[in-house]
Amino acid sequence: xxxxxxxxxxxxxxxxxxxxxxxxxxxxxxxxxxxxxxxxxxxxxxxxxxxxxxxxxxxxxxxxxxxxxxxxxxxxxxxxxxxxxxxxxxxxxxxxxxxxxxxxxxxxxxxxxxxxxxxxxxxxxxxxxxxxxxxxxxxxxxxxxxxxxxxxxxxxxxxxxxxxxxxxxxxxxx
Length: 174
Known about the structure:
By secondary structure, the protein is mainly α. The protein is built from seven helices and three strands; from the N terminus they run αββααααααβ. The protein has helices at residues 4-21, 36-49, 60-82, 89-100, 105-111, 116-140, 148-164; strands spanning 25-29, 32-35, 168-170. Strands 2-1-3 form a three-stranded antiparallel β-sheet. Helix 3 (60-82) packs across helix 6, helix 4 (89-100) crosses helix 6 and helix 6 (116-140) packs across helix 7. The longest helix has 25 residues, at 116-140. The radius of gyration is 20 Å and the shape is globular.
């Protein structure tokens, strides 16, 4: 019995340790893993943006939309870099300041252990995605005033084309 106790403790120790580091990959974009925790984190941030408690449950359809949004932002960040498109640091800092005034933000940043640099990068990615989208809409509809439906359809097609240019593998979302 004495031999079994250390083996059992050893097994339990490593079982618990490995449970902490296991992460579910929901997609692979050009060799970059996108994890389930990124989807949950982004969902909580979207909830915060809409003044909804961050821990509000996300349904499967919303998780899929969030995954698409995360993928788009990663692609947009890369596209902006390749096209030398930037967002002024002052704009980023102003947006960061706005986010940080939200009542839920301190707990969110603490929960995910997000540094100021990481948070600034998250906000910059959002702003770059918005800027690329605005630039696309301006180029696409430069000679006319489009309806909301026309813009939505054009942006959706544009994003699909951006996705097609990537090596993208989807896995199941828990």
